[in-house]
Structure formats: C-alpha cells, structure tokens
Amino acid sequence: MRIVNSYVSLAANTNAYANDIAPTNATAVTLAATAPGDSCAHKVIVTNNSATDYSGGGKALVIVGTGFDGSAITESLTGPGSSTTSTSTNYFLTITSITPNFTRSTTDTVDIGFTAAALTPPIFIDQKYARSLPFSPLGISVDSTGTSGYTLQQSFGGNWYDNATIASKTADFSGSILFPVWALRLIFTAASTVALNICMSGR
Q1: I need a surface site. Which of 56, 83, 160, 177 has the fewest CB within 10 A?
Q2: Which of 94, 116, 138 is the last residue of a domain?
C-alpha cells in the first residue's frame, strides 16, 4: 500500500489576519482571513507597529481556533513589546476569533498574521499493519521542490517526536521507519512544496 500526500506550505504573511488595526478591549478583531490557505497549521504572529509596549500588565490577545488536527484550541498570547513581535506557541489551522484585553489609539496599531513555521495534518498508520509481527518497516520518501525546510515527526499515540533521520531537510530524501508508529506529520520551517510518500510492504 502506498500513501501520497502533497503539501504546499506558504511563506510567512505577517498581516494575513489583520493589517494595521488598533486593539479594543474585549472586542474581537475583524479578521481579513480565517486560515492561512494552504491546509497547514501555522503559528500566529502579532507585530507591534509602534513604540508603545504591549507586553506588560497582563496585556494579551486570546486566540481561538483549531489546531493542526482540527481540534479546538485556545491560546492567550502576550502582547508584543515596543516595535517587536509575539508568536504563538500553538499552530493554528483555522482562526475563529482573536480578542485583545487592552485598548490602544489608532496610532498604536498591530498586524496579525502567520509564520512560515507550519504543521501538516496527521497521517494515521493502519494499526493492523503497525501491530503485525514481525513489523515490516515503513518506506518513507519526501519529494521537495522550491525553498524547503522540513522534518518528519512521529507519534506513538501521545507526544510527537522528530524522526532521527528525516530531520532539518531542504531537498528530496528517502529512508525508513523500523518500528511501529501511530501517526506521522511534517513540520515546516520555510515555505515548502513537498510530496510525502509512505509505503507499507505487503499491503
């Protein structure tokens, strides 16, 4: 059996969700878009366009949306300092709302967008195959075009871990996974166009 998933991960767009807007306490930002548009989950970035410091006194923007796997997530992102940026910890596939807890004048504005850092949706491995004994290794190849920076990540049903071999790659690569895994995904650090091929022998 062969699984092929193709991804076109976009470059950073720092004002994709909101451009030059003045935060208003407890009022959700009017969003220009609700997703990056590439079917990948990206980190949210807030850029402070002024010398006013947004980072003190508990100032934050509450981001509500969905994560890389479509599950609902919420993050309270500390506001950016003077002429700097704040970046979310979570990767957001979609944005439902972004609500600041502080107010600034029209001369103290922010941009809200997404970083190039991105996650693909999970690819779940046939559990009958994963539990078969002896386990047949998974053949993995990544066909890359353009600017790329990617790592294959794997999960055994809980946390995600970087694959020791297919990590920090910028070009085509092939290898194998010699032990059972529950799911796979790619994490990007740069705009990327790739095809992820997974081959399960005897299927």
Answers
A1: 56
A2: 116
